[in-house]
Amino acid sequence: MKRTLTLIVMLGLFVFTQNAFAQKPAASPLATVKQMIGTTEMELVYSRPSLDGRDVNELVNSLNNGVWRTGANTNTIIGFDKDVMINGKPIKAGRYSLWTVPGNTTWKIIISSITDKWGTAYDSSGDVLSFFTPVTKTSNKVETFVINLTDFDKNSKDKGNIELAWGNLSVKFPVKVNN
Fold first, then answer.
1. DSSP, residue by residue, 63-128
2. Strand, helix or coil at 156?
3. Alpha-carbon dihedral sign for residues 113, 123, 65, 145
4. Quick check: 137 and 149 in contact, CB under 8 A?
5. How far is Cα 68 from Cα 109, in angstroms, rounded to an integer?
6. Are 172 and 151 spatial neighbours (Cβ–Cβ below 8 Å)?
7. pLDDT tens readout for residues 32-52
8. What is the radius of gyration, based on Cα positions, of the chain?
9. Rounded (5°) CA angle 57-63-68
10. Which residue of 2, 41, 120, 159 is 20 to 30 Å from 33, comparing CA positions?
11. How far is CA 173 from CA 19, 27, 89, 90, in A?
């Protein structure tokens, strides 16, 4: 009887601990994109928030020109295994964080050498490059935020645009490599 009771208690504890530590799907799933641009590998690591009934334009306006981690959870990482040009400016090979200051007509893009920040803990001391790029309103509706390489030049194979898309907004900026 004592053994049966011990077995039942142990089985109950096992079931309880399995349920207590079970992982739930992330509200903003982590994405990793690896893309070749010529002979250079680009990597993007970011979490993808969904609109979930919210209006992207209201979200942009609510930031009041504040710095956004360009995704959810931890800061977005962008990396290159060789030197590149972003918006016509040189960036050394390495891993960087990507921050933005969303606006109605332009977004400020910030590339930072500080890659270990959580959430909105932006630190301007690591800024490597910053510039403004226009916002385009599209007829598409992107429910879950996405960053991708678009407009890849199939002839020269050495350039494209990094696009940030969410809701009806698209923000693009050029990246160029040396093949």
1. TTT--B-SSEEEEEEEEESS-EEETTEEE-SEEEEEEEE--SSEEEEEEES----BTT---GGGEE
2. coil
3. positive
4. no
5. 10
6. yes
7. 999 999 999 999 999 999 999
8. 21
9. 100
10. 120
11. 45, 28, 12, 14
pTM higher than 0.85: no
Residue 28 per-residue DSSP state: S
| CA pair distance 29, 49, nearest whole angstrom | 7
Name 144's bridge partners: 50
Phi, psi (5° rounding) for residue 25?
-60, 140
Q: How far apart are the first and last CA of the chain?
A: 75
Number of H helices, E strands in the chain: 2, 9
pLDDT digits (tens, 9 = 90+) for 52-74: 999 888 887 777 668 999 999 88
Q: What is the mean pLDDT of each successive set of 10 residues along the chain, which is 179 residues long?
A: 55 51 76 94 95 86 80 93 97 97 93 86 93 95 94 91 96 94
> Are 174 and 158 within 8 A, CB to CB?
no
> Which amino acid is residue 24, in one-letter code?
K
Mapping DSSP to helix (H, G, I), strand (E, B) and coil, where does residue 178 land?
Answer: coil
